[in-house]
Amino acid sequence: MCYDLIAKTNRKEEIQMSLTNSILCLFEITDPNLIVTGISKERCSTNQRIHVVHATLSYQLLKCPHCGHKSLIKNGTHMSHLRLGTLSGGRYEMHLKRQRYQCKDCSKTCGAKTKLVNRNETFTHNIKHQVIVLARDMLTSKEIAKLCGISPSSVQRILNANIHLAYRVKHLPENLCFDEFRSCNHWMSFNCCDAVSHRRIVTLKDRLSKDIIDYFEARFSVQERAQVQSVTIDMNAEYGSFIHRLFPNAATIIDRFHIIQLAGRALDNERTQTIRTIQDKHSRIYHILKSQWRLFHLDEIKVNDSKAVYLRGINEYMTQQNAIDLALDAFPRFRSVYQTYQGILSAIHQKDANAFQSLLTNYQPTSNQMDITINTFIKNGSALLNSCRYPFSNGPIEGLNRKIKALKRNCFGFRNIDNFFIRISLIHE
């Protein structure tokens, strides 16, 4: 009988230990001194249901942490209310009884410690990790708070305490991309990334030349900045004014997309002015210029000149080349702008710097919208031709800016720019 009683007792202890280990594994708790004593459900002052894990923390403490003597005695327990990570979207807490000790020599007290939580804190490392993971998914603070069972202000405090903006990157890459984006309160902020690895280098609160120069000169030596080989920018003239000062050996590259965009805008402006001169609003030429504007932006190689298709707006079957020729034959001035646009498009797609240079040199002004565009290209001559000589573009940084815009839209904007930059650093990790 005695042996059967001992066996039943051991069996109960094994079941209790297995249950304890299962509960601790669910919350990723590895402290061997924690013992789960039970699970219950309670309601807080806001009538929210709380899942409570009751546990004790006790171990043998040999020396007093204050005086170092081996004269400690147990002195009751202290109840701690810890916030655990959520398992099903609710609120989970641990009511932890910590063993207290008192030293007979110095009469000071101390308590049992655990790596589950920092000193004098109630949020465990598990729930902090959950908040950071959800913040990387571009969720709002309210959504994160609802999922984790905490307040939105607690979410922001956790992010501010655990995410720190780097002073600078360890190594400045050889190829950079510059761009800007709209951040808080209608401010335009500066963004920089590596053109090869697409890694974010720095995000500044504004795009003023003074602040950009101060950042790079204060954090990177002349030798580090001299190793930069290229900087890709858009048509912003402010960037071109200080790039050589910061990076003396770097070639300035204007993004190819912005070149085509500027030329296409001139083509559209000329097309719009041409439409206004047409008196008969029901003519075929008017409908071609009005409704089939996409045909004039196509590369000549991609224009279909053999198969007739139904063109909406014109309500006729004809080839795309035939529709283009009808409009160009009727307006020679528009033909000149169109041919210049196609020359720019061909030189950019083929990355032919000599053809681009020849086009700019031989261009004859005809008092149209393309004249302003060509003059802008001539002012940025070397940087413009570098777009054909180098393989880099502003595509990587435009992708980073797209993520920033998605974050700002998902969170319905930010009032605090520091909180905004913390969230930016999370989505770019």
From TrEMBL:
Residues 114-160 form the Transposase IS204/IS1001/IS1096/IS1165 helix-turn-helix domain. NCBIfam families: transpos_ISL3 (NF033550). This is Mobile element protein. PANTHER family: TRANSPOSASE FOR INSERTION SEQUENCE ELEMENT IS1557. Residues 63-106 form the Transposase IS204/IS1001/IS1096/IS1165 zinc-finger domain. Residues 176-424 form the Transposase IS204/IS1001/IS1096/IS1165 DDE domain. It holds the Pfam family DDE_Tnp_ISL3.
